[in-house]
């Protein structure tokens, strides 16, 4: 997908070394075929898949239902190492854990595990870097390194699931319940890999992790053709639109892709998605002091969303070091909420977890030499 208008970003990722093929890149049938092609028993694919997705067992020594002589061959064929932890920071008494990963080619990505009393959410990256160039975003300012593979995306969730299952997160053993594609990258600019990852996450074991589609959120800055393509998938995932401004003049600056697809087009595609799926669209809006938090913009946003199947998620901006952008004043945030509620628009203010551990996407990677 490429932008054609002058001054708008090209969405293709730079070409780099291809990640090794992994079990999570493939359907169960494809896993069986891959093993057969490698001269290994195809029926072992279901056993390997169960170890990976259901038992969360990454050590071949634990594969007691597979002959010892075959374990290393199978691991090399289907479960190569995809990423290595570089740094991990914790907050909220250990229940928020941000990990910086190094991929096989040295690219850096981040994931965040957030454990709440009633759920555990994994925020995952879909690209190393991002090509959308939003000026208030640390990842956007770093530029795009490459797309991630389906398995690299899935492995972030599986790694988080392992730490929970092993009781390494305060609160005792648990499971990942929610996944949000709100880490580094523009998910719909890496469409094929992201949709593949969604299927791995929601398909029941041994095909995948068996999460609920309704507990998966895919975000976008507004790539209209990709939103239309997602609508045609007839999935039940939540669509989140990173809007950040209700008017084209400001959104052209905050979200440069808006110079190609305007606010009206983006919201129109979102309403089509809501109509097809019956799912409420999440409108993401980072409140930025004296930039997009004026009363008239709150009123305009309320008018655009009134009566629609939508919910506004207001995000107090987590500023990046040295940035001119910062969070709105508490009184302006409160007034923004009241204005939206006056229009009958459901609105919540996002929990600002992880602020003390470089919680904004891309901050941890930006600090790594």
UniProtKB/TrEMBL annotation:
[4Fe-4S] cluster binds at residues 130, 134, 137. It comes from the Bacteria. It catalyses: adenosine(37) in tRNA + 2 reduced [2Fe-2S]-[ferredoxin] + 2 S-adenosyl-L-methionine = 2-methyladenosine(37) in tRNA + 5'-deoxyadenosine + L-methionine + 2 oxidized [2Fe-2S]-[ferredoxin] + S-adenosyl-L-homocysteine; adenosine(2503) in 23S rRNA + 2 reduced [2Fe-2S]-[ferredoxin] + 2 S-adenosyl-L-methionine = 2-methyladenosine(2503) in 23S rRNA + 5'-deoxyadenosine + L-methionine + 2 oxidized [2Fe-2S]-[ferredoxin] + S-adenosyl-L-homocysteine. It is found in: Cytoplasm. Its cofactor is [4Fe-4S] cluster. Gene3D superfamilies: 1.10.150.530, Aldolase class I. Belongs to the radical SAM superfamily. RlmN family. Specifically methylates position 2 of adenine 2503 in 23S rRNA and position 2 of adenine 37 in tRNAs. Residues 116-356 form the Radical SAM core domain. GO terms for biological process: rRNA base methylation; tRNA methylation. The active site is at 110 (proton acceptor), 361 (s-methylcysteine intermediate). InterPro entries: Aldolase_TIM, Methyltransferase_A, RNA_MTrfase_RlmN, rRNA_lsu_MTrfase_RlmN/Cfr, rSAM, rSAM_sf. This is Probable dual-specificity RNA methyltransferase RlmN. The keyword Methyltransferase applies. One of its GO terms (cellular component) is cytoplasm.
